[in-house]
């Protein structure tokens, strides 16, 4: 696990100097505290004698082949050079095949297999890789730079093409270190952020700076960049399969995925929240380990946000070596750190506990397994239940005929984390909308009408004609013909999972030099889960049925039946206590950076409504505070 940077240029006026490249690389030292390397060739010539400059930077977190495998790596004659961030879990199989065709290896790491595979297959090589990765390959023979990102988007990769030059890096701050790259904020990105709590790919907060989409590669040659999809995942296809056969296939896939992710030359452990997904991953890892697995959970002093009692039950059942951390998280202490590390506005408040868990886990191990992805793959979110129920209600009678709807709409909002009233009101507000729009209504942080009422006229005038809904609509369309639960879950796989969850985990863990591996996100499992008939995963009020049917004997039965808690923090209470002064000193300050975006009286009303308990705007205030803090720190 590492960080990568680099550039290609054709004009001396846009050349990247060694100092620039070193600065780009040093900005992500946290991703690779064990080693730093840069390689440059400012005088490469193409077949016509035209000069091309190229540079690659690398920060290393040593996981496999600790003494060797330093990057950039090259082939035997130096015509192919590579830097990559991530892990290739099937590299041993690839290595044996490549050695059989005559390739010579100088290291024992996984990166060299990519180099030789690219020599043989070109860009078709990425389809052969099972892992999480962001890759940059300089191909001197073809005078081109090739970038690639893993299928699910576990590892980030940003790039910009400006002034006849390509620059790229594992984090946006790499590009911000180069003058003239991150210069103008994209208003559409702010509108998208307030909708989703993240900025969807391929856009970023900066105009002209892009995220390489998951499952894609890009080629930069002759001053032009082209982007291509290599993962031909089709979620519109459902494959009939008998339950017993499906369970056996899932058992094989997940067991193999965990086995592959246990490869490491450093201490390894597992996150254990006490939920279904992390418990199953830990159980499978323990069944494959001769020694007790190191497991880690994080607790909070507020019972409504503390799952560690369930984690302890699972740890005792499995016989792991369990460590429970307890913290009193304070947004006052951590928010500035999060804003710096996440680079662009990122509003998922569960980044806070993820940050603390990563920080504390790194004290014991360098690699940790995680259960991320189970809810998306196997229909575990309550919003899937809501979507399913809404479809049934719409068939029965129009929304205005629902008994008691007028009374429910007039009820005051609740501030409890799992408020039935608040969830019921959101459910009813969306019931009459088309399915995809209805789903967005339950996902979005600021509804369209609220955003419109808060924006200044000048900011509205700066927005393009495009709608933030277009992003969800585009991924929703890829599962045409499937049932609503499958369409919602596969849309989350293609949007929320890479843009929010993977981003959250990657940045929070790599900020502390911790590698997190997610066995459920093996692309083979993702494809298999998406192809299953919905009734194997979800029926009525319950999801993850096939996980229980397949692995139910491995963990305590109560873990499958207990109420889902999620991974949250008391964000609403913070804004009435610890964060109240910060809100007044920033969002309501005369010099607030968000003033050109939001009408001050609208922000003040949002704050007042929350502080007086009229409505719970905790998550909205968190997103506004994140945006304000980002603007203060990065502009």
UniProtKB/TrEMBL annotation:
Gene Ontology BP terms: asparagine biosynthetic process
Binding locations of ATP: 298, 370-371
Domain annotation Glutamine amidotransferase type-2: ranges: 2-223
Pathway annotation: Amino-acid biosynthesis; L-asparagine biosynthesis; L-asparagine from L-aspartate (L-Gln route): step 1/1
Domain of life according to the entry: Bacteria
An annotated Gene Ontology molecular function: asparagine synthase (glutamine-hydrolyzing) activity
Family: Belongs to the asparagine synthetase family.
Name this polypeptide is given: asparagine synthase (glutamine-hydrolyzing)
Organism listed in the record: Rubripirellula reticaptiva
């Amino acid at each position: 696990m590492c960080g990568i940077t680099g550039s290609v240029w054709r004009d001396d006026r846009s050349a990247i100097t060694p100092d620039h490249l070193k600065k780009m690389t040093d900005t992500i030292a946290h991703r690779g505290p064990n080693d730093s390397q840069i390689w440059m060739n400012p005088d490469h010539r193409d077949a016509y004698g035209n000069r091309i400059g190229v540079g690659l930077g690398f920060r290393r977190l040593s996981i496999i082949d600790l003494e060797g495998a330093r990057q950039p790596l090259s082939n035997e004659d130096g015509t192919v050079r590579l830097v990559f961030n991530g892990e290739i879990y099937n590299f041993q199989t690839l290595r044996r095949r490549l050695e059989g065709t005559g390739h010579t290896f100088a290291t024992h790491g996984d990166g060299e297999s990519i180099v030789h595979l690219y020599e043989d297959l070109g860009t078709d090589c990425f389809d052969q890789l099972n892992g999480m990765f962001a890759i940059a390959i300089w191909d001197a023979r073809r005078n081109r730079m090739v970038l690639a990102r893993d299928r699910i988007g576990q590892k980030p990769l940003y790039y910009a093409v400006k002034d006849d030059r390509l620059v790229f890096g594992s984090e946006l701050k790499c590009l911000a270190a180069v003058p003239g790259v991150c210069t103008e904020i994209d208003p559409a990105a702010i509108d998208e952020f307030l909708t989703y709590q993240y900025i969807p790919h391929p856009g970023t907060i900066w105009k002209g700076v892009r995220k390489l989409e998951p499952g894609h590669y890009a080629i930069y040659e002759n001053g032009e960049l082209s982007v291509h999809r290599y993962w031909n995942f089709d979620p519109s296809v459902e494959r009939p399969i008998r339950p017993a056969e499906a369970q056996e296939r899932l058992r094989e896939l997940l067991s193999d995925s965990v086995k592959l992710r246990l490869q490491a030359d450093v201490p390894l452990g597992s996150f254990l929240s006490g939920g279904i997904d992390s418990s199953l991953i830990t159980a499978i890892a323990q069944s494959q380990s001769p020694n007790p697995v190191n497991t880690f959970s994080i607790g909070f002093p507020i019972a409504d946000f503390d799952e560690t009692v369930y984690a302890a039950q699972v740890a005792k059942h499995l016989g792991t070596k369990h460590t429970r951390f307890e913290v009193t998280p304070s947004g006052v202490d951590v928010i500035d750190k999060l804003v710096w590390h996440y680079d662009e506005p990122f509003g998922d408040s569960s980044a806070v506990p993820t940050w603390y868990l990563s920080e504390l886990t790194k004290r014991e191990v360098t690699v940790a397994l995680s259960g991320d992805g189970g809810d998306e793959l196997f229909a575990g979110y309550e919003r899937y239940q809501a979507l399913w129920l809404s479809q049934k209600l719409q068939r029965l009678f129009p929304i205005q005929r629902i008994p008691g709807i007028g009374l429910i709409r007039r009820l005051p909002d609740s501030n409890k984390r799992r408020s039935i009233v608040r969830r019921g009101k959101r459910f009813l507000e969306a019931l009459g909308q088309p399915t995809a729009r209805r789903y967005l209504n339950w996902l979005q942080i600021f509804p369209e009408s609220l955003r419109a009422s808060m924006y200044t006229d000048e900011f509205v005038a700066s927005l393009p004609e495009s709608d933030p809904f277009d992003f969800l609509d585009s991924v929703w369309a890829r599962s045409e013909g499937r049932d609503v639960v499958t369409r919602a879950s596969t849309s989350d796989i293609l949007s929320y999972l890479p843009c929010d969850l993977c981003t959250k985990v990657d940045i929070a863990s790599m900020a502390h030099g911790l590698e997190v591996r997610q066995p459920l996100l093996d692309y083979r499992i993702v494809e298999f889960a998406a192809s299953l008939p919905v009734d194997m995963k979800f029926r009525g009020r319950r999801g993850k049925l096939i996980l229980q049917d397949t692995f139910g004997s491995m963990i305590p039965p109560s873990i499958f039946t207990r109420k889902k808690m999620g991974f949250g923090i008391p964000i609403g209470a913070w804004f009435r206590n610890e964060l109240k002064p910060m809100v007044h000193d920033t969002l309501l300050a005369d010099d607030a950076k968000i003033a050109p975006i939001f009408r001050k009286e609208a922000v003040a009303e949002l704050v007042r409504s929350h502080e007086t308990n009229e409505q719970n705007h905790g998550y909205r205030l968190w997103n506004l505070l994140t945006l304000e803090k980002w603007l203060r720190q990065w502009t």
